[in-house]
UniProtKB/TrEMBL annotation:
<dbReference type="InterPro" id="IPR036291">
    <property type="entry name" value="NAD(P)-bd_dom_sf"/>
</dbReference>
<keyword id="KW-0560">Oxidoreductase</keyword>
<dbReference type="GO" id="GO:0016616">
    <property type="term" value="F:oxidoreductase activity, acting on the CH-OH group of donors, NAD or NADP as acceptor"/>
</dbReference>
<feature type="domain" description="Ketoreductase">
    <location>
        <begin position="11"/>
        <end position="192"/>
    </location>
</feature>
<dbReference type="InterPro" id="IPR002347">
    <property type="entry name" value="SDR_fam"/>
</dbReference>
<dbReference type="Pfam" id="PF00106">
    <property type="entry name" value="adh_short"/>
</dbReference>
<protein>
    <submittedName>
        <fullName>Short chain dehydrogenase</fullName>
    </submittedName>
</protein>
<comment type="similarity">
    <text>Belongs to the short-chain dehydrogenases/reductases (SDR) family.</text>
</comment>
<dbReference type="InterPro" id="IPR020904">
    <property type="entry name" value="Sc_DH/Rdtase_CS"/>
</dbReference>
<dbReference type="InterPro" id="IPR057326">
    <property type="entry name" value="KR_dom"/>
</dbReference>
């Protein structure tokens, strides 16, 4: 994708969960394509490393999406010149465990809901009023094929991604007549990130998840045709209607 013409106003994009995986790759790709990026995450040292790699067009901002008070205060907490967010990329999310529903830890379910559902809703609610007031904006949320296709052990994780799908559909309905778009990206099985290691708590078990599959690497598929390239492309097409859903950007299978 060609860089944006510098005669156009630079869009400011806020990416949640930018310290690893898709979020990290999306943030770098957006900067490369000429956007200003507010990269948020919980790990300050990773945010600092990302800012060093990306340069002055990226603002590192420590934020835990499960901290409701901090999320609600976000618009006013951003530095001057960064407070008008044009595009929100709801990337922060996680999966924990692969146990059957009756064997899971309630704390794992609570954490997934707090991050994948409540955190996404709260930050959307915090930034959406400004977009609507300016009649200009875009909310992009990462769902998952797990929100549509069931598999053993996906119980609450899959349900949380199904919530993302339906929330974004309803958001599009609310936004009819506004120049604010709502887009869902639904990747499939993707390697090359810490996602499965966080889920299983063990690198060896995490690597075994991809045995017998051709899983897409997060970094690679933030190149041509994948999540990272689709994200800035979605930003460009902001005024071509407000309904978009892109699924299976990373494919599993033999």
């Amino acid at each position: 994708m060609e860089k944006r013409a510098m005669t156009q106003p630079l869009k400011t994009v806020l990416v949640t969960g930018a310290t690893a995986g898709f979020g990290h790759a999306i943030a770098l790709r957006l900067v490369k394509d000429g956007y200003r990026v507010i990269a948020t995450g919980r790990r300050q040292e990773r945010l600092d490393a990302l800012a060093k790699e990306a340069g002055p067009a990226l603002l590192p901002f420590k934020l835990d999406v499960t901290d409701t008070a901090a999320v609600q205060a976000l618009p006013a907490s951003l530095p001057e010149g960064w407070q008008e967010v044009d595009v929100l990329v709801n990337n922060a999310g996680l999966a924990l465990g692969l146990e059957k529903a009756w064997e899971t830890k309630p704390s794992d379910w609570e954490r997934m809901i707090a991050t994948n559902v409540t955190g996404l809703v709260e930050i959307t609610r915090a930034l959406l009023p400004g977009m609507v007031a300016r009649n200009n904006g875009h909310v992009i949320s990462l769902g998952s094929t797990a929100g549509t296709y069931p598999y053993p052990g996906a119980n609450v994780y899959g349900a949380s991604k199904a919530f993302v799908e339906q929330f974004m559909r309803n958001l599009r309905s609310d936004l009819l007549g506004k120049q604010v778009r709502a887009t869902t990206l639904a990747p499939g099985l993707c390697g090359g990130s810490e996602f499965s290691e966080v889920r299983l708590g063990d690198k060896k078990q995490a690597d075994a998840v991809y045995n017998g599959t051709k899983a897409a690497a997060a970094g690679r598929y933030c190149g041509n045709g994948g999540v990272g390239s689709r994200t800035p492309r979605a930003c460009e097409h902001q005024h071509r209607g407000n309904d978009a859903h892109l699924s299976g950007l990373c494919r599993s299978g033999g």
